[in-house]
Design goal:
The chain is α/β, with parallel strands linked by helices. Helix content is about 35%, strand content about 20%. It has two domains: about 20-170, Rossmann fold (3-Layer(aba) Sandwich); about 200-500, Dihydrodipicolinate Reductase, domain 2 (2-Layer Sandwich), CATH 3.30.360. 6-O-phosphono-beta-D-glucopyranose (BG6) binds near residues 238, 257 and 258.
């Protein structure tokens, strides 16, 4: 039985909440969609949960000619519309007192001087202690200007005993070269350990649960390898189109938008070895090791597919095709669907394909990782008994119906030995009473705490571009994406790609 020491008494009490110390956040690009829909509500939700310090301060920086009150009103409306937790006037009032707005463009020296005095004033009036994170929710072409302005105006230098951090939204470049350039620009100003690159998928509970499932249990890991696994399917399907994001999306496309970051991070967590500890360094070591072992198949024409949505029906509504969306060039070759096969050249995974797919305007919104197992090497049953039996599978349901499903064969009640697939389900909603925080709540809190576990390091970002670049180059010079009707499951070529391997995509 257990040892004399009581590990529960020695361990830090996990029920004590992690609360950020004195600090503030400056958001560049504060008038954008992300800020309104995700960042502002997340900050309020953190305050409402008591996880922010009493003097927490929020500074918006943008071109608008707003006073502090106008900015506070915008945050107020965003919170009312998008926050996860109920609105409480007293929480709001305390938060609103620490809101400031600095009006200016990124090349405006006077505006950065005003930002500096605003921060100094907050340190005095709100006790932020010189601790500020700068959140760059702006297109990458502005990164160099903003970070060099921060340096020039003395904003990136933390005084003794305080910190300054940079938070960077995706897209982090559009290929390996541009990502390397951005990294070197940012690292000239901030130490690597003070740079937090956001991949909001890592902030999702279900994504962190991949590690819990694999490394806190004994029953899955022995099967998690080429001896038992036939293949892995990682799907991120969305039912929405590009909405008002034509400016960002066209020329970028689905593979750069989400495979380079979210899907390769999911692959890394699914396929990596157990980290030596649950610390940022150990995690990055393992993620990077497995990403370094990822290989593209030689024939990219056979093992990659891209598509573009055509008009169709979604939720009983007729929706336009991509080329008819506002702001899209009628000849655009941008992919709104991408699928690829990857291999992992190591002892655990050799010969096990990882199929990744993503798309907009697909049948429904679902993100999942399906580990599909090999068939039993021998069956004592008649072939007719098992004709409806599929392959065993373990499916991590990332969203929206968060949980885990295990699929296996079971005898159908009756006088015959007939075996059919059944499922065993774990659902977050049933097992836990507390609802999951939004990814951005978790990640903003981690930035303020200086906890880098859930942030990809620059080597991972660069390696992910290195994996994707040859695919993008191949697509650039080979034809156009295949059209698929909105509301369907993507181009026919994607089904054919798996059929050639004797497999098929799951229909979640
Ligand atoms: C973003 C992409 O990173 O993730 C969007 O840029 C996509 O195109 C979004 O819609 C999906 O996020 P979520 O959390 O809704 O799955």
């Amino acid at each position: 039985m257990g040892s004399a020491a009581n590990p529960l008494r020695d361990a830090q009490d996990r029920r004590l909440p992690r609360i950020a110390g004195p600090s503030g956040l400056v958001i560049f690009g504060v008038t954008g969609d992300l800020s309104r829909k995700k960042l502002m509500p997340a900050i309020y939700d953190l305050a409402n949960r008591g996880l922010l310090p009493p003097g927490f301060s929020l500074v918006g920086f943008a071109r608008r000619d707003w006073a502090d009150q106008d900015f506070a009103q915008v945050v107020h409306d965003a919170v009312k519309e998008h926050a996860r937790t109920p609105f409480r006037e007293e929480v709001w009032q305390q938060l609103a007192e620490g809101m400031r707005f600095v009006s200016g463009t990124f090349d405006d020296d006077a505006a950065f001087d005003r930002l500096k005095s605003t921060i100094d004033e907050l340190d005095k009036s709100r006790g932020t202690g010189g601790n500020f994170a700068f959140y760059l929710s702006v297109p990458p072409k502005f990164f160099p200007t903003v970070v060099s302005q921060l340096k020039t105006h003395g904003l990136s230098d933390a005084g003794p005993g305080s910190w300054r951090r940079a938070v960077i939204e995706k897209p982090f470049g559009h290929d390996l070269k541009s990502a390397q350039e951005l990294n070197s620009v940012v690292h000239e100003v901030f130490r690597p350990s003070d740079v937090f690159r956001i991949d909001h998928y890592l902030g999702k509970e279900t994504v962190q649960n991949i590690m819990a499932l694999r490394f806190a249990n004994t029953m899955f890991e022995p099967l998690w390898n080429r001896s038992y696994v036939d293949h892995v399917q990682i799907t991120m399907a969305e039912d929405i189109g590009i909405g008002g994001r034509a400016g960002y999306y066209d020329g970028i496309g689905s593979a750069r938008d989400v495979i380079q970051n979210h899907l390769l991070q999911l692959l890394a967590l699914t396929a990596m070895e157990e980290p030596a500890s649950f610390g940022a360094k150990a995690l990055v070591t393992e993620k990077l090791k497995v990403l370094n072992a990822v290989r593209l198949p030689e024939d990219l024409g056979r093992h990659t597919v891209r598509g573009q949505y055509a008009a169709g029906w979604q939720g009983g509504e007729k929706v336009p095709g991509y080329l008819d969306e506002e702001g899209i060039d009628a000849a655009s070759k941008t992919d709104t669907y991408a699928a690829l096969k990857l291999e992992i050249n190591n002892r655990r995974w050799a010969g096990v394909p990882f199929y990744l797919r993503t798309g907009k305007r697909l049948g429904r919104r679902v993100t999942e990782i399906a580990v599909v197992f090999q068939r039993a090497p021998h069956s004592p049953f008649d072939a007719t008994d098992t004709q409806e039996l599929g392959q065993n599978a373990l499916v991590i349901r990332v969203q929206p119906d968060e949980g885990v499903t295990i699929r296996f064969g079971s005898k159908v009640p009756g006088t015959q030995m007939e075996i059919r697939d059944v499922t065993m389900d774990f659902a977050y909603g049933e097992s836990f009473t507390e609802s999951s925080p939004e990814a951005y709540e978790r990640l903003i809190l981690d930035v303020l705490l200086g906890d880098a576990n859930l942030f990809p390091r620059h080597q991972e970002v660069e390696r992910s571009w290195e994996i994707l670049d040859p695919v993008e180059e191949y697509w650039e010079t080979h034809g156009r994406p295949e059209q698929y009707a909105a509301g369907t499951w993507g181009p026919k070529a994607a089904d054919e790609m798996l059929a050639r391997d004797g497999r098929s995509w799951r229909r979640p």
